[in-house]
Design goal:
The protein is an alpha/beta fold. The chain has one domain: Rossmann fold, CATH 3.40.50.450. Helix content is 46%, strand content 14%. It has 7 helices and 6 strands. The protein is globular, with a radius of gyration of 16 Å.
């Protein structure tokens, strides 16, 4: 596997409304835990569309991992200026990430024109990737279900990796147990 698309919830879908929410640390740790073995097995590119939440947090994880690993970040938003209605702090983060990424190119030129752009983005990412990593609860898939449905049509089942709520619980417990004060 050389190319992996990563996606998942937008922050409001998982009740995260501040960039300093401590749960983001656990989410990033879970993403890191899944990406490192894939990178060590030869993963070269991680693709995202750059949406708020899981995708931007993944971008931050990848940029950190690039200090130690030879992995590239590609960002393919559905259209230009997708961040224009986001909170200003997230717009600034998005702009920093898109200028730092190894590759950035919107699927469609111009601003939002219709929902077809999101469908085309999902199909394009699924088609260009060898596998995908989704942070998703199958009981409450949220907007992630749109990509997941396309991925099931395009990819083999074993190429769809999911970080579940139970996986997040495991990461939280691992981080807690690694803290010397936990045992104290």
């Amino acid at each position: 596997m050389k190319i992996l698309t990563v996606t998942g919830y937008k922050p409001m879908e998982i009740n995260i409304f501040k960039e300093d929410d401590p749960r983001i640390t656990y989410i990033k740790a879970a993403i890191t835990k899944r990406l490192i073995p894939l990178i060590e097995e030869g993963l070269e590119w991680i693709l995202i569309s750059g949406q708020m939440g899981i995708e931007l947090w993944t971008a931050e994880v990848v940029l950190d991992l690039q200090q130690e690993y030879n992995v590239k970040l590609g960002i393919f938003p559905p259209f230009e200026n997708q961040e224009s209605r986001w909170p200003e702090t997230i717009q600034e983060k998005y702009q920093m990430i898109t200028t730092t990424a190894d590759f950035y190119k919107p699927i469609y030129k111009g601003d939002y024109q219709g929902v077809f752009q999101f469908k085309a983005k999902n199909m394009w990412l699924a088609d260009k990737s060898d596998a995908c990593l989704l942070l998703m609860d199958s009981e409450y898939p949220g907007s992630t279900r749109f990509f997941y449905e396309i991925a099931k049509q395009v990819m083999e089942e074993q190429a769809i990796f999911i970080i579940t709520p139970a996986d997040l619980d495991d990461v939280v417990e691992e981080i807690r147990m690694a803290d010397p004060d936990y045992w104290g």
